[in-house]
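Predict fold of ABC transporter permease; 220 aa.
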Amino acid sequence: MHADWHTFWPKVVDATGETVYMVLVTLALSALLGTGVGLALHTTRKGGLLPSRLVHTVLNALINVIRPVPFIIAIVALSPVTRSVVGTMIGTDAAVFPMVVVATFGVARIVETNLLTVEPGVIEAARSMGAGPLRIVVTVLIPEALGPLVLGFTFVLVALIDFSAVAGTVGGGGVGNLAMTYGYLRFDTSVMAVSVAVLIVLVQIAQLLGNLLARKVLRR
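Predicted 3D structure, encoded as tokens:
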């Protein structure tokens, strides 16, 4: 059975909107949480602003355990928690929860890695002028690493589009669900082709916007 494209395009538009919603909400939440975890990792490391071996070891272990898990497995593993928090395991909101959990730890590692590129001398200079840890983070660490951080978040944004497609195949909504329900299960290659095209366009837009923003930040 093939789709009637005169009536099917609204479904494509709705699915694209759901994907954009999942990606943007996840990006906002994971950026906030992941940046906090990444800053904690950087500041608590040996020689950091607030060194703490225990905190750094625990956070580092969590990231190393969660990051390698394939997203499709993470969705299944987190499903009981998702049901408890969201109330359901189906739909876009249910897909956002595991996406945020997984993306947070990916963002944390990206933030920590980029903060490590800041010259130690700049931090020491701020310390010698009496700046406290919070002031150094806000006025030195983040501004100095902002360009690479924007590129890192662009990478995360593209990865989240992929996550949303995976989530859609297990009832998460969006373009992935459209491709699975109306394309794969109905053997309709036209729906699959359109779904792939939509995802490619979304990725290209995300990459373009990220590159433009990073270029603007780096020129400051």
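The chain has a mean pLDDT of 88.
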